[in-house]
Design goal:
- The structure is a homodecamer.
- The longest helix of chain A is centred in the last third of the chain and has 25 residues, at 101-125.
- The first copy, chain A, starts with 20 loop residues before the first helix and ends with a strand.
- Chain A has a two-stranded antiparallel sheet with strand order 1-2.
- The first copy, chain A, is of the alpha+beta class.
- Chain A has two domains: 13-84, 434 Repressor (Amino-terminal Domain) (Orthogonal Bundle); 101-160, Cyanate Lyase, Chain: A, domain 2, CATH 3.30.1160.10.
- In chain A, a hairpin with a 2-residue loop joins strand 1 (128-144) and strand 2 (147-160).
- In chain A, helix 2 crosses helix 3.
- Helices cover 44% and strands 19% of the residues of chain A.
- At the F-J interface, helix 6 and strand 1 of F face helix 6 and strand 1 of J.
- Strand 2 of chain A pairs antiparallel with strand 2 of chain B, so a sheet runs across the interface.
- Chains A, B, C, D, E, F, G, H, I, J: InterPro entries: Cyanase, Cyanate_lyase_C, Cyanate_lyase_C_sf, Lambda_DNA-bd_dom_sf.
- Chains A, B, C, D, E, F, G, H, I, J: Catalyzes the reaction of cyanate with bicarbonate to produce ammonia and carbon dioxide.
- Chains A, B, C, D, E, F, G, H, I, J: Residues 92-164 form the Cyanate lyase C-terminal domain.
- Chains A, B, C, D, E, F, G, H, I, J: It catalyses: cyanate + hydrogencarbonate + 3 H(+) = NH4(+) + 2 CO2.
């Protein structure tokens, strides 16, 4: 059975050229320590998705995150500080449209329901956007008699267009 | 102020060529009756996003939906039955990548967090995808001292890859 | 001489299919009345760029804007209200990359200086973005012995990435 | 907090293949010396954006710039002269459309307001373009009770189309 | 004659950068042992296509698969476990549209008959999709007086769209 | 429930510009007569997919097909002869990649398993391709305790590369 | 022989949707009057290429041009003034890359010699560009024993990059 | 001032993967010897653009060119002969559309004036193309009170379409 | 059987927007008269492919062609003269890459054998190209015991690159 | 003169990443031995184009081909057997559309005459395609008083569409 068999996420070699060097360092230590993002998130006091995003170079590590990661993953703190210095350069991991079936499904939701979301959001909030920056997201697992369900929550600040 | 001022969502003329003819019929009646998707959703007993998707031709109307829409919008039932016959041909409303800023933000979330979602979902559920078909979604509004927050929930059945 | 000879901006017929029907109504009245965006902006109490964006369907008209436009352009107010109802569907006017030489130059500035802007903004403000929604922009004209200079100012709220 | 915490901009390894070798030399020395572009700009007597552009290979260094950079960054002058010889080959750092959220916002401004800028510029200046070559740009930070604001100024010579 | 002359499939060097490192390990051992996917499939108790997909990093190996591959291919089990750890990152091997003539023909079938499949599937099953995840596929060879025929069977669970 | 509720496939108005005029004629008559492709296939003695392809202009009608369609759909035979004259111009109905979720799943199968199919086909048949011309395909429905399964069979002549 | 047989350039119907309405007016009158661009250029005192560009909506007509065109082509002056009002919206006539063989050859020259032009221009003029705005171009015909030669001259102001 | 300060054109490291190995050899020697293309062109008796094209692998070196380059640049003749053997594989240096601002301007000229060139060339020469093969080009510098002007001449054989 | 059953080629309605109006006129008359391109070619004294290209607006009609077409197809000569005036605007009929299976096969030959053709042509003729302008092409049918064979001949003048 | 001066085709370094490793081995030996494809074709008893395609990894070598290549090129037979094992992965050498001018001309022929070929082939053969698999091609050189002519012959089996 190909189920949730304690297998942890690792870094596929073919994705490396699109990632900052910190991704290799972090994922290798994660593999060595055999840690899930759940365990890492607990240590960092952050959401699992945020931790995974940090590993892929899509989110920023605070000084405290670096200290925690250094402890948990046995990576010298100054090496982490150096590799995680600067500012994330986001958005380069993905093909357009996404080719990975799991990620494509998320894209397909936007593709099919994009205008429906817009219509409902505009009616509920007015002219503006849901911020993807002042934003958080999480994944939850629900199970019922029909099987498992993934529940992804997106929560963003509503930003009305400025009048000028 | 460009806020939630009871303005309802209508159909922009430049989107018409990408939509089935039912979209024009439905949106014109909605405008005539000055109804929000919230009111329509209440009548149909469905989520607002599902109703909006139905208007944009991205979801299917059941015979009961058609009856309810006919009553609520004063459209002859046989006209609705005819225009909503057949099966939705989904996915054509959107540019790739989306150009509309509100929809782009949703796409950007997939672009930035796609691999993070995948890593966490794989660790939590195993090898598979979150279905975008056995799936539901809704929008909620939260307000706190910082302003309004849009909360979008995506809930999909987990489908493990078959072994063969 | 092809200078600023009181020629006003009108709507090219080949752009019409990408625009909402309000654009045709507004531009035709503008041509009839021979009004510049400067004159329109004075009446509406808004920036010229915002007025032009409103004409192209890229910004929203407030009820007061509609009243003012109706008066200034001699368009029945209910016609304007109907055509400008709903929410702008932005971003569809442009080719990617832009083909129009004037607009291409703006794109080229982003293309050449994009990472430089990012580096300086990150150092000055931290990890985040300059909002294009809580945002205003204006154009000014300066003249010196070398000729005319266009000065475009972009002013956006800084949005730091949420920690989650 | 992910604020302006004296973190300096460094070079992400995944961007290196799109940059001239000088970018690596300059950014490594910048990191070693822990210098902001503000400090570098002061030394060179240039705008911060111009300095960052020079680091990314998007602007040219004058002999005096090279001397100043050599002193400030402790890089042998002849090495800098050799690596910065020749002429910049601009425009290759960016995806099209930009994927990085911060840079995308700048692009989105062009996408949404492009035709509005064109209409207003044509009315103010006639038939022509704002030069992106005889051009300067700068970033300023403003703070009010609502938070921080980024102000980007673009200033370009107006070039009327030649009649021939 | 360039027929089925016991030549086995090997890995072309130009495809390597798009594949996980496990692909190189597995294909090299396959070449060394001179094994067809038929022989490998027999050992693993899986379909040939599934085995080939596993080699290309498009399907997941169970612990038992790894044990069997280790025995059959003389690869140390822990090396295989390490290289096949994590979750497949699917979909990156192919150009869009496919350039390889054999694979293009499969794509062409979708291109030409896509809407015909949709119409017939909708009529037979209702509004939904055939799953590509709860899915299996196999290849059979038939021979008659006209020559050889390839028969590819695709079998997927029907997933009706959820009503919400 | 959105199941196989005797709803027949009709032609969406937004697809019309990509289709020959015969598609409109045929689908309108099909809707009028409320016929499934199953019924049409029985009359014509062809596979359902072939009939649907014929309706979409992706397959050719023989003189006998035209006679049968004329009788079944009450369309004057000479009108059908005229509209179905000439040769199909195939392949234009689809976006690349397909946006419709049902059709995308078929494409995804090619995307994920393309090289696996090639490897197994080459080992079984030698150097060549499976013809998409000397080719047939059909859809079958299977039902077990888990639900419905769609089974698509592709059967093509194997064409070895000529030696020259 | 398909030589320079006094055939004049007319407007192909399939290009019309990409052009402003003035193009149709001008080309129809040109056809009616059977005038070459040489004759038109003589009347207007402009280069032939500039005249053709004006017809295609790629250059601006001065008031005097409009008067001359009105006389030469027997088009009411106020109709021309109205259709040629506003500012050219350039660049939309062409596919990318150009498909028309004659235009492709011009593009191919840029494709093959682009970097060579840049290297020589940089060495001769420094860091900058040749303006395509402060610019003129003309076509000449030379004939020798080998046949006819087309000579296209591009003359643009050199614009050095501003230091800032 | 960033003017024509005797800086010679060198090879940017990021362009190397798109060029044949001869480009590296030639540009390194050019840098070592500090030679302009003007000097090289004088030695070879060819146009500067042709010499630069030769360096970028876009033109072919004759045996005499190789001898001259060997002498001028102090490169062993057999090394040059080996690296310049075979036939140029042209056209790969450029992005589409070009991103480099200088080269983009040349492309923009084709984009804006392409159909105008075609109309005038057809009227002057008949149905055919200007050859980009039986072709030469050169750059000249003119200076007047307004500054410097770049003059690029394209001269190609006119090829009429064959009648068949 | 779907063989060469005296069916003539007609114009599919979905291709019309990409073609000049003459294509509609010519194909309609061809259908009315039930003429093959073989018959038309005999009348015009041209190759069948050239005649078909003329119908699709990809080749030019001489005055004598127009006279012959007028007689053969019963189209008033002045109507043909008017619709066929001007110069062909070639290359717009095709998708890139071609989607039509028959045309894709021709493209695939270029895709697979392109570099092989180049290598052999360079060795046989030197540095240059085979002209697609001073060019003719024809189709022949051969039949042997294995079935029918299509033989397409391309014959183009060799154009060596000019030395300059 | 840049004519057919006994220069042989070699492998450009920038094409290597798109080719199997066998291409490097074969082209290096060809250069060492200074052999044309004409000489190689004579040894192998195959067409020159087929030999070049084999070198570029676009055609398959038979055991006898390998033996002959080993003898002619002095490459150990087992090395060739190993590098040429497996099945060609075709189609990856080319840009889309092709940038190389010689190859572009071949593509342009398909682009301009594609529908003309289709119309004539359909009329001559019925509904089907010319196979690019059961296919051969050759290049011949003709010389007359006007110069050299390249004649490319494409010969493919006609495959009628199956009726199903």
């Amino acid at each position: 059975m190909s189920g949730p068999d304690k297998t942890i996420a690792t870094l596929r070699s073919d994705l490396v050229p699109r990632l900052p060097s910190s991704a290799v360092t972090l994922f290798e230590a994660k593999k060595q320590k055999n840690l899930t993002f759940e365990a890492i998130a607990k240590k960092l006091g952050r959401e699992e998705v945020a931790c995974a995003a940090l590993f892929y170079g899509q989110a920023r590590a605070s000084p405290e995150d670096i200290k925690n990661l250094s402890e948990l993953l046995d990576i010298p703190q100054d090496r982490l500080e150096s590799e995680l210095s600067g500012w994330p350069d986001r958005g380069h991991t993905l093909d357009l449209p996404p080719k990975e079936p799991l990620i494509y499904r998320l894209f397909e939701i936007v593709q099919n329901y994009g205008y429906a979301y817009k219509a409902v959001l505009n009616e509920k909030f007015g002219d503006g956007i849901m911020s993807a920056i002042t934003f958080s997201t999480k994944i939850e697992k629900e199970t019922d008699e029909k099987g498992d369900w993934a529940v992804i929550t997106l929560r963003g600040k509503w930003l009305p267009y400025s009048r000028f």
